[in-house]
Amino acid sequence: MDTIAALVDNYLTAERPVSVVLDPATVLAQAVVAAKFYTGFAELVTNDVIEPPFPAVTEVTELSNSEWTVIKPLFVLYIERESAIHQEASRGLGLDVFGRSTSEIAQDIANLELNMPMNAFYQPIVTV
Question: How far is CA 90 from CA 8, 27, 96, in A?
Fold first, then answer.
């Protein structure tokens, strides 16, 4: 299992080394927000042995591969929205905006957040 900070670092250096124009601290903050949203619907694997069961989610929180697989699409949309906000704010300076608008991204985020309870649901198999 990797920490959120390590997963974000891997995302910035290996998966999307050129396309993310945000600073690493902003990207990391968006990953923490996405993980916090996920924990509203599912308990993290690392919480199985920790008391109290829902400690604060920070950049040092460890995520399993399956948790990151569910969280990552929301994280990517949060990054895209944050980039769009920065670009739309620079429009007043005469810069051309490229990519999707914040309203288009917000619709995708709303759909993904609406489906998060279903995506995060896990019921272990019980035999009797």
Answer: 26, 19, 8
